[in-house]
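Hey, resending since the last one bounced:
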Amino acid sequence: MAHSILLQRAFSIAVAATCTLACLGASAAEPVSETLAGRAALVYAPTTLPAFGSRALVVVLHGGLGNAQRLASGRIETALNLNAAADAGGFVVAYLNGTPVARFLGADKLGWNAGACCGQPVEKNTDDVGYIRSAVEDIAQRYGVDRSRIFGVGHSNGAMMTQRVMCETTLFAAAVPISGPLESGATRCPSARGKRILAIHGADDQNVPVGGGRGKGLARVDFVSEAATARVWQDSGAVYDLHVVPGAEHSVDSISAQLLQQESQTLAEKIARFFGLAARSTQG
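The structure tokens again:
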């Protein structure tokens, strides 16, 4: 009888310990506010990471009228969900901020100088390439990132900016631009030779049409087509793959939903696999 009671107590202690560990595990890390090269940013580092100096970094650039805070914790992140992918794959995610895209829309409506797009950053010729390089170097030092394992992701205006960085620097080993072509005006990008790019675009995108031209968004820009963008990258020696998603529109939400339906994987999972950062159990 006494032996049975002891066993029951031991079992109860084990269950309580398991619950405590589960609760701790369920309390995922939160993005940390950082000031990088004079701008606010958010960095997400999972509780479990590879050794300092060997870690991968994914740099995420918001779209026009967006910001890092919204992308890291708001509705878009629900669809993109890179934080969860980082937990599974063990990599760091940095959400960077552009600068105000228009004088009268508010200080939280930001954009990037991607070349022809968009708004005030272009008119002021903001050095966003220089900013991103400085911010990423700061993150790499603070978080122990392997410089050969830095990757870029951007949506819309952020996708255009990601491609400009790929064109003008060797910062990113690979990139996934979503819903945005190359708008820098470059016809060759020597820095991209041998680099990998996966461009993802909704077939029904009316803001930034796949075929180019002026969309229905606020940007008054005649966008470059994805076909013309593909030629620049291919002529530059990059390994370029354009994935046009049937039924998807401009938003991350729409693209991720269609990918889940058509490929049984989310947009975040597709990105992580492309970079070779998916959890080992899910890598093909």
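The two ends are 53 Å apart (CA to CA).

Sorry for the duplicate.
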